[in-house]
Amino acid sequence: MVTTIPQTPNTPIQSVLIVGNYCHDVLLQGGAVVAETLGGAASFISNVLTGLSVSFHLTSKVGVDFKYPVNHDPIVVPTSKTTVFHAYFDQGYSVNAHQDRVLKRIEVCDPINPSDLPDRKFDFGMAVGVGGEILPETLERMVEICDAVFVDIQALIRAFDENGTVKLVRLKESGFYHLLPRLKFLKASSDEALFMEVEEVRQWCCVVVTHGKDGCEVYWKDGEMKIAPFGANQIDPTGAGDSFLGGFVGGLVHGLVVPDAALVGNFFGSLTVAHIGLPKFDLRLLQRIKEEVQTRKVQCTCWLERRDDEVSFTKPAGHDEFHASLSSSKLVSAECRRDLSRSPGSVEQVIRPQYKGQQKFLLNSVYDKSN
Ligand SMILES: Nc1ncnc2c1ncn2[C@@H]1O[C@H](COP(=O)(O)OP(=O)(O)O)[C@@H](O)[C@H]1O
Ligand SMILES: O=P([O-])([O-])O[C@@H]1[C@@H](O)[C@H](O)[C@@H](O)[C@H](O)[C@@H]1O
Questions:
Q1: Does residue 190 come out as left (phi exceeding 0), alpha (psi in the -120 to 50 range) or beta?
Q2: Residue 242 is among the residues annotated as catalytic for this protein
Q3: HSE-up of residue 233 (Cα within 13 Å, Cβ side)
Q4: What is the whole-number distance in angstroms between the Cα of residue 154 and the centre of ligand 1?
Q5: How far apart are CA 207 and CA 219, in angstroms?
Q6: For 125-132, what is the mean pLDDT?
Q7: Which residue has the CA at smallest separation from atom 18 of ligand 1?
Q8: Looking at the record's lineage, which domain of life comes first (predicted)?
Q9: Does ligand 2 lie within 6 Å of residue 133's CB atom?
Q10: Does the beta carbon of 239 sit less than 6 angstroms from any atom of ligand 2?
């Protein structure tokens, strides 16, 4: 299903395809359910792209039990349940899993097949499965219909034990390795990057490794660069990587060069960790960000015209100032700041009453990324 965003001079015209299932997330700590929210990388990415006025087509599958209202209707599979994840924030470090939480897939919806994808071309494709729903043949089809494919490695290397606990397998053994030379960007968190050979993969496609509160690092064939983070009062790390990818692709769609787009990614990652579940962004803040992005695009266009293609990876002059202006947009007004710190996320999600408004409540007990 496609979102139509009213066209303004600031609305980009590139077409974007997001592929990945929505899911139901249950966040648990100390044996108690803290919150139940809409989840899945597709939901966090849609949220960011909509905030940046980027329209997109989304292919996602759910069961008849899917319980959240969304702007992009998923395919409802009558014989299947919606994918459900339980995220435990206090089960200790498991060697082969995410370090900040232990994730268990409790229910699994059907995979997304090549025939589920739209029969048309896109400029950008995003393969962002969470529960193993993206098959090698589905990614292959995405590569055929999209000019540039962005992949979250979690869509490729997650395996599930008999209890549904997420285990990671090496990228080489994932069944997707042969497709890497046909991808444009592969994003991994620092935990996930341990399951790939960055030095080998960067020869084929650009690798972006996210480092929680420390921002991210971009590796391409001939170089690498660190991209500075933004400050955040972390409450729940869920969706930070997804929102990062949404901001990164949103920045590129708006015409930013890679380092500046990665800053936008870091920015949305930092906004997301300050909320439980899916964040509801302040409209004035979004407006300010879009203005900053447009100004930055104009600054860089003159610079890009003078140089070759590779240059879109190099940090252009004014990058640090762009960081500062995004940072200051968080302080767009005292009112906005109050709204952001109060906002529990989207209205549909359920946060248990005893946890509501507790800003010091951190879903971080294993590894607190905010320290
Ligand atoms: N505590 C934090 N403070 C500021 N930014 C953060 C924080 N945690 C995450 N981010 C931002 O979100 C991005 C993705 O977070 P990360 O934890 O690396 O991914 P994942 O959610 O996949 O584990 C980071 O690169 C960073 O820009
Ligand atoms: O936190 P993050 O790694 O960016 O992404 C998360 C997934 O890992 C998780 O499986 C899903 O249930 C969450 O809703 C979210 O999509």
A1: alpha
A2: yes
A3: 11
A4: 15
A5: 5
A6: 98
A7: 212
A8: Eukaryota
A9: no
A10: yes
Nearest residue by C-alpha to atom 3 in ligand 1 = 213
Distances (CA, A) of 164 to 27, 85, 175, 348: 15, 9, 20, 26
CATH of the domain spanning 20-355, picked from 3.40.1190.20, 3.40.710.10, 3.40.50.2000, 1.10.3120.10: 3.40.1190.20
Kindly provide the ipTM of the predicted complex, given to two decimals: 0.99
pTM value? 0.90
Give tens-digit pLDDT for 222-261.
Answer: 899 999 999 999 999 999 999 999 999 999 999 999 999 9
Query: pLDDT tens digits for 178-193?
Result: 999 999 999 999 999 9
Nearest atom, ligand 2, residue 130 CA = 10
Among 242, 282, 308, 339, the active-site one is 242
C-alpha 362 to ligand 1 mean position (Å): 15
pLDDT (tens digit, 9 = 90+) per residue, 69-105? 999 999 999 999 999 999 998 765 444 344 578 999 9
Output the average pLDDT for the chain: 86
Residues with CB under 6 A from ligand 1: 189, 210-213, 215-216, 229-230, 232, 234, 237, 240-241, 244, 266, 269-270, 273, 369-370
Q: In degrees, to the nearest 5, what angle opens at C-alpha 73 toward C-alphas 239 and 122?
A: 80
Q: How confident is the model at residue 14 (pLDDT cuts 50, 70, 90)?
A: confident
Which residue puts its alpha carbon closest to atom 20 of ligand 1?
241
Q: Residue written as tokens 């974007």? A: 16
Q: Band of the pLDDT at 299, cuts 50, 70, 90?
A: confident
Ligand 2 center to 110 CA (angstroms): 18
CA 312 to chain centre: 22
CA 335 to chain centre: 27
Domain boundaries, the chain: 20-355
Q: Which residues touch 255 (CB under 8 Å, ≥6 apart)?
A: 12, 297, 300, 301
Whether 23 lines ligand 2, by a CB cut-off of 6 Å, is yes
For residue 92, what pLDDT is reported?
A: 52
**Stretch 278-300: mean pLDDT, rounded?**
93
